[in-house]
Amino acid sequence: MRKTAKRKIRMDVLTIFPEMCRGYFGSSILKRGQEKKLLDLRAHDLRKWSDNKHHKVDDKPYGGGPGMVMQVGPFYRALKSLQALKKKRSASPHPRISASRIILMSAKGKQFTHEDAIRLSKYDRLVFLCGRYEGVDERVAERLADEEICIGPYVLTGGELPAMVVADAVARHIPGVLGDAASLASESHAEEGVTEYPQYTRPEVFAPAKGAAWKVPPVLLSGDHKKIEEWRRKSSGRSR
Length: 240
Description:
Number of helices: 7
Strand order of the largest sheet: 2-1-6-5-7
């Protein structure tokens, strides 16, 4: 019987702080996914593609204003060097259009969802562009990125944390990365408006102080699998 080839996804992060990503990518499930050769996670120092001796990648904004803006040049040269720059961009988010997707992490981007994680997991390669300071030259969004994504309605210091959040969520949908693929089906947000049911483990009763007793719900100790399943569905908001 012919074996099905393992599917691998590559994710590149362009940032001026690559060490932030390398530590996270080298731990836990993401580390094991790389060891299984299902994930190829790389963090690149954007300063490498600076065009000046001081390795600056930012400058003052045209029109005035506070702070500094990250330049389009370093991002362009980095994408070109990494062979991620597309000759022709497509507005379609469907992976059949292209095997790769360039994503700008941006506070004004579309808010990331569970459905986006599934959609992006279909690509062979994702490239995350991380801004800093007062933002990124708009030509990066207009000319280089396929889409802009944020992870919530708030502003962070840089795009590194959002990039790692998206990479983590996407990686979980690559077959073989999780030890038990069935766990994806019961996770929070696997169904719209549904979260995972509450989980408990030993001890059965935890007493943090005298007179206090934090107990496991009796139904979970009953051994009645039908009642347990009903309790779990009700607790998670799933319909019968």
